[in-house]
Amino acid sequence: MSGARTPVGATGRGAARQAVTIHFAGFNRAWAAWIGDRLERRGLRVVYLRWDSPAEVPLVDLLRDLELAEGRILIVVSEWYFQLGPRTQEEWNAALREVVAPDPSRFAAVSVTTASVPAATAVLAPVDLTNMGAEEAERRLFDRLDLPFEPQPDVPDGARRGPRFPAAMPEVWGGVPRRNTRFTGRETLLNDAYHLLQGAEPGAGVVTLHGMSGVGKTQTAAEYVYRFGSEYDVVWWVNAEKRVTYRRLLAELAPKLGLQTGQEYGERLRAVRDSLRRGDPYGRWLLILDGADEPDQVWDLVPTGPGHVIITSRNPEWTEHNSKLLEVPVYARDESVAFIRRRAPRLSEGEADQLADALEDLPLLLDQTAGWLNDSDLSVRQYIALLDGGIDSDVVKVSADFPLAFQTAWSILLNKLRETVPESVDLLRLCTFFAPGFIPVRLLREMSSDELPEQLAGLLNDPLLWNKAINQLRQYSVVRLESHEAVGDEGAGSGESLYLHRMVHQIVHKDMPDADRKEFIDVVRLALAAADPRRPTDPDLWPGYAEIVPHLKYADVLQTQEPTVQRLVFNCLRYMYFSGEYVAGIKLGERAMKAWRELLGPTHPRIWELTYHYTNLLRAVGDYAATEALSRAASEHLKAERGPQDLEHLRAAAGLAADLRGLGRYDEALELSQWVLVAYRDLLGDQDSRSLNSLNNLAVSLRLLGRYPEALEHDRRTMESRRLLLRARHPWTLGSEISYAIDLRLLGRYAEAESIQAKNVREIRLVMGRDNPQTLKAEHNLALCRYRLGERDRGRDRGAEREEPGELLSSVLERGERVLGETHPLTLIFATAQSCYAREHGDIDRARELSEAVVARYEVMLGDEHPFVAGARANQALILRNVGEREAGHVLLEQALAAMTDAVGEHHPWTLGCALNASALRNIVGDTESAAELSHDTVGRAVETLGRTHPLTLSARIAHAADLRGLRDRRQAEKVEQEALSDLDATLGSKHPHTVSARSRNRPYWDFEPQVI
Q1: By three-state DSSP, how is residue 63 classified?
Q2: Can you tell me the distance from the alpha carbon of 419 to that of 427, in angstroms, rounded to the nearest whole number?
């Protein structure tokens, strides 16, 4: 045969470069790219020509046009190549005989498929490249083109890396289910998904496979992975049913990518998302989010970048989150018939068609039914009669998205299981008290035998019986046994990881005797309680809580009075508070409050402990009115029942003080915080953690009142004590460092503040993860420290990458909006800073957009009389001034000054800042005398409150000098200005932007900065 071929030609130096045109279906782009790369590396010129087969053009004409291509034409033969059009095999046979057969030397071919192709393809003499390694495939390719072949050396590090051999596995592979060797059909769906992803812009390659339960979304996604995984360097599969689980599993990708991170999964998650976004070290990645039925829970964590994302979901709302939607329907009838006959070979084509019709072509039901029907003596007709007539009167009722036939079919299957291995039904029922999806059955097997009822003891303690039950469920496709690398499961044979479909989960759960229900649910509750890591404040243990939380609802843990289970609920709430999972925590707290009030009574001791955890979560999202009511009720009840010195009462009173701070009632909060601190010290001493927490809270109250030196002293003492009693990287210690650095910054000690905060940020990222609220707070303060430092210290960290304030502020706001939501108190703090920064750097549209949003949200959250509203309006007035709306800005600022004075008093730094800005606006609108009077008064109060050299006082002095010039009192203006400039030089330095600006006689302004309560 080789004698009939035409060689491509010489490729040595001095010879003209010969061309090869590679003709391929888009579906086989990876093969074309690999083949072209191999040819180009040996000096040939390659032309890529993707095959397009418009139905209106005769196939013969298209092939004749192909003959116009340059050089030898190499066709990549696959079923996809011949299906485009669509064209029938008869059309292809005729066209190949007419066009190719007369001059076969123009054509060569390689086959990358094992599927049937038109018979006349033989005229192309395709060489098979399947089921072999890259070197053998390359040798065959060159032999088909009559080219000499010598293996090339490995590509050295740093050199251009060509396409990977398509049949090779990705370098990083994890969590992917085993391939379903019985997968049938879905060709069009897979093709559409591929083209949508390949044609997407970078960052937009997201496709959602959407459909009802049991339709095969997960199986379709898995088949996509196995068909096209060779086109990626990274393939990672995660269960996305719950946010906490998704975060944990995605974080497990970090070590696989070779990323250097801490052990805490939040830090790993940040590193993974950043790596995927940058495409470093891998740009060709595929992430599968399986079971993401609640887009609102995980959409913000979907990575962007050069790779692709496939989502499986019952929820079509993914279209609102930049995803293309592909519906996964039930099988077409021919697919159903083909699948049934592969699953149950004893059935004829006619019987398979009857069964498919009776089961409504639902893939999951076809899989389960055909599996056991193949082993049964029951005929298809008899089985359909059972379906039509039902088997008993207590047919299971299931949700509306389940086909009616599923009810009876499952009753039949369960009867079959009871007859063969009854323990398999017990295991299946146990699993339904965990969340559907991946079931951590190892928790059951780790339980003490003393805690197990006799009915389950044998199953869980006898490995042979356990494996027998598992295998029976697997045989009928009731469960899947997985070895998910991302989860770190142990041996598959132990059944450490079972996958139970939600459709099966629901119907089995409902079809259960009451006696079994009570016994089995108690076992699962105790298993979850035994798995409690018991230290919810320790980030190293958060993965354990992340695994437990999704199962609390299904084990109905709120309906038991078992102390260990109730303690688990408290610890999960605390974990969600510290890890920043506020929304999920609030939902659990709300359900617990309702359930336990009915179960235990409204004044049971557990209710007050629950109130503490629940109000912490509500307070974290800014619902201060609700928390104030709950905390006050708890405090008053406990005080009346147990006395004012009771520890539970003190904890409730401390919560009430925090609520008062949130509501802007700072004097009341301070008084209560002082009393709580004294009471704790009297009872427990200075160094108890509760006393230190109270000292920390007192510092917050003082800071909100503008009493910065006192706050600094309290925060210093708290920080030093926590370093001694806890550890340097304990979250509370790190929190104290943030507070201390904030105090230093508010006092104008910018360099000290930046030094402490920079070190703290490095530590907190390692411990808490970059997206934790505590980390965002730390980075925000670091940005402000560097912003206030100005340009003089920008190069101070030579040799290390230094994050500039503008970049940090933008990053913190973006992550705050994504992780916490746009209305979260921290996000509003971040948005305020970003708006002020944008205003000062000329992006007035961005500044105005953010400022208007902050004002509106504070008005809704806090009410018109809150000092945060007055401060946000003061910032908005400066923007109005910048855009030329001076009169409107003047009116708004005067209103803000009056409101701030009423809220916090005339000596508060916030009031002084509003006055500083108001004097400027008065000057601008021509009221120079009033401006000078206000700035003079502001200087006096600032000196009294903050001291002569505080940055706000210095700004007020510079402003007053400007107002004196407006009154033509040049001598006094010069005196005031020179004294202020001298103090600026001594305090901030002659090159600090504030000093330079003051020497240029640019009037200073003040930015309101909301504080954490």
Answers
A1: helix
A2: 15
